[in-house]
Amino acid sequence: MIILSDKIKYISTLISGTALSQLISIISTFILARIYTPDSFGVFGSALAICTIMSVMIGLKYELTVIFPKTERVASLASALSVLVLLFLTLVAFLLLTFVSYLHLINLDFPVITYITITALLAFEQISMNWLVRTKSFKIIAYIAILKTTSIAVLQILLSDTTMGLWYGYLLGNLIAAFFYLLFTFRSLVGGIHAISFNRISYFLTRNKKFPKYSLPAGTLNSFGNQIPILLIRSLFGEQYAGYFLLIRKLILAPAILISTNINKVLSQDVTKRIAQNKPYLENVIFYIQLSAILSLITFTFILIFLYNNGIAIIMGENWNEAVALAYILLPFAIFSFIARSVSRFAIYGKNEWGLYYQCIFALMSTLSIYLCSLIVSDFKLVMSSYSLIMSIIYITQIFMVINVAKNHYNKLSY
Fold it and tell me: Is the pLDDT confidence value at 6 over 70?
């Protein structure tokens, strides 16, 4: 039986901190929507999409190796090597992005160094987060989440006199958060660096080769699938509609980020422990799916009430009137994303190749659902309806894939 008190305690600790950070983020979004135009958000969102995709790639997914080791010594070594890989590939990414920008192969809205800085900060956050999850430092995660969101919000508001306020406010806010992540993981990183040797590096790379082989392509495809919509929308419909999509997706996906993502952190630790003990985890997976489904129904009922009362237009201003219909269209996508996020990450189940196959489908469908539909119709709402429907089906498929993995593991242990 699942020890409900422990699970609820961990989840509630994470959610309580993330709830405040999300509340700050939502309130600041409403304020920023009255300060900045949809076009400004479209430019900011497309630039951030590029950084988000690159942040997955430059870490080679070695941040996942921090969770799995049985001893703190090996985990410290994994975190240190993950940071070293990150630093090296950050330099490589800077040189490559500078080169392609110089040749005008890609048009960047902001200086190259800012793209690379944000990319590295996002990647480092993932390494630090996994270490803190491993050590059950959920309160620290919650506090830093609050600090990060507050810093970004305040700085974006203070820099609103500049056309790049959204971008530089986000960069500086992430720098502040990175400082505190480093503060709480410094000891483990130093311990890991002292333990580094050629033999250990060779052993680490050999033992964890499945992460760059399977998890890296899967993570990159997942990030691409999540970020390509705003890039396509900006290309096909312009910066204004990209801004609509960015803010509406942020608002209706806030519950998924708030609740199901934190449920997944607890589930990851739970499943990893049970696999190490050679115990089944089917009951755990079913429990978290049921919990997420119940919470999603409650959460999106309130969102529907908010939309029905024209809350977006009232709070965000007339510039965002056209975005209300988009919120209704994306609701099914948000609901199933909510549930799927709670049990996603095939790597924790030891099924890296399954994750790769799924993410290939996810990225492909995310792209085609918008691009192919735009070739048939030019109406933005119809294109977004196609996206919402197809991605809902993809998320449902992911949920059943995870259940199947858990069932197979259970049956294997039963024989």
Answer: no
